Amino acid sequence: QELGLWWTVPRKGWLWAQWYQCSGSAAKSLLFRFLPFLRWLPRYPIKDWLLGDIVSGFSVGIMHLPQGLAYALLAGLPPVTGLYSSFYPVFLYFFFGTSRHNSVGPFAVISVMIGSLTESLMPSEDFMISVNGSNTTIDEERRDAARVELVAAITVLTGIFQVALGLLQFGFVVTYLSDPLVRGYTTAASVHVLVSQLKNVFGISQGEASGPLSLFVTIIDLCKKLPGTNVGTLVTAIIAIVVILIVKELNHKFAAKLPMPIPIEVGSVILPQIIVSTGISYGVNLKEKFGISVVGNIPSGLKPPVVPNMSYFGQVAGNAFAIAVVGYAICISLGKIFALKHGYKVDSNQELIALGLCNFLGGFFQCFAISCSMSRSLVQESTGGNSQVAGVIASLVILVTILKIGELFRDLPKAILAAIIIANLKGMFKQFKDLCTLWKSNKVDLLVWIVTFIATLLLNLDIGLAASVAFGLLTVIFRTQLPHYSILGRISDTDVYRDVVEYEMAQEVPGVKIFRSSSTIYFANVELYAEALKKKSGIDVDRLIEKKKKALKKLKKQQKKLEKEKAKRKKGAADTGSPSLPQHAEDGPGVSVIELRSEESGAPSEPTLQSLGLPKPNFHAVILDFSPINFVDTVAIKILKNIFRDFHEIEVDVFIASCSVSVLAQLERGNFFSSAITKASFFPSVHDAVEHISRERHQASVSTQPCCPSMAMERAATSTPPSLPPQVDHSTRM
Asked: Per the record, which residues fall in region Disordered (predicted)?
């Protein structure tokens, strides 16, 4: 009864009416789900958290200023768009986000992905205008306006993808981006970022390359133009990089003693700003005298929303999806790290929706796609940030800058912004240490890291990401195709079964082979599963079946020959009137024995391996441990049927143990069961299957034992040798 109840699959109906039932509690739950701040804001501990959030928000807001300007240039956009991207999305995240420590906003990797797209679709060469009829120059105003329009469309489409994936509960899509893949990709993207900023470090003008191998084209072009380096720009950039790195090291070294990290980006911006202002006051124009490129005009005030040009959607759909996935992967990874550290939960699907709404709505206000910055998030956490209120404070700092003091950054050298970008890549380049760690721990993950890094360098960011994901999925297939196969044995006096090769205490059950695969079985590996099972069994199953077929074919010929001779003898006896002669000895004992058994039983019986003179396997049962199996497909079901059939041919019973209810249901839907394969072959555990086999063998041996010595002598003279155990027809039982 227990076995019968175990495999019964309960049928659960979906209560669609309850799903779509409108009620006050359902509406409240839905509202709290999509607006998480309604859940935590009423319980906000003002006395404990507010001061820390204010200090943290002010620190992060100050960091947003130079990073927003720098990452806007990285995206090929006017600097003011970086300030917009540091204000609108950060403010919106307060309402929709679930991470208390993530600092959303411009991010280097996302910015360089956008920059490569703007340079390929809106190259500067398309905006050349003639001056004095002979010279040509770039119409920067028209180019910037066109790029802003393009990026707004990209950002809105990125947001649409993210919101759609979140509503469809596709937050798990990031699981296809393994940690080695993400780290290899961001490291390669950092190389792209570094190369893109070298022109601002050396103060040279450079053409824009896009597509595969564009990184190397840019490097070659840069090397050719190195003789035209602007010394003033180079010196400014080097000094800024050195100062930033030194202060970052001091931050790291004295982190325990400092009340809060030093926002070095602010110092590196204010110092040159003071120098420039002082130089202007003394009549020294750095831009004209030394040729140092500066940020330029930064308009004050906020602009009204503009509907994006949807005609670009078809051109940028693939790139927008890549940006959506990468941005979310980085954001949720950091969010889970902080959530685990501080003991709260992050809703992955809601984070996808929150990030999507920040991008979607931000696209109407000239923002570019955003993600989460590790450096800002670490500062937000270390300076006492406890909630999304810190993000609101940071956005207010940016708002004041946009409205009142943005114009002060007009004469800021671009070399300073390039220095900020390059110095902030230090953490990314530290990921090269992963190579040593992965070499020691997992060679496959190391291969994923290297292939992702190389593919992203060679094929650019968008195609490189697609190639990396494809390769990552291939490694999963290869791993499932080459799992570990093992024969299990029982540890004495327990119901525990382990690999007999790895555990000395595990001993094989006599007459039973227990087989396990470390992976699930499906179309890509099920044939390897069947081959490994036959190999681990210790006999050549296919060869034995072939020998049996040949022996049966030979036997049929002998039987036909015997029947013809019988018919001749009967005909001759009828003609002469003499009785039928007995069977000649030369007809062969094998044929006569088989025929005698058929006549005695009253029904035809298939010859056994022993009667055919073939070797019998040294085991009588096979147990397939299905505990690692979580799904089967139609191909796997077909091969499993063949396994049952082949082992039945060589008089070996097959049982399945530890099969989950879901897999059992899949087998039932795939027409796996028949009169030859029934659910009586399934058991809840390996030990249950072993006990069942032992009981059946014992009962079969008891039923065939003779009652007295005289019967034993008679049976020994007329039956098969007693050393071979009698074969039980399990197909009839099943």
From this structure: 556-588, 714-734
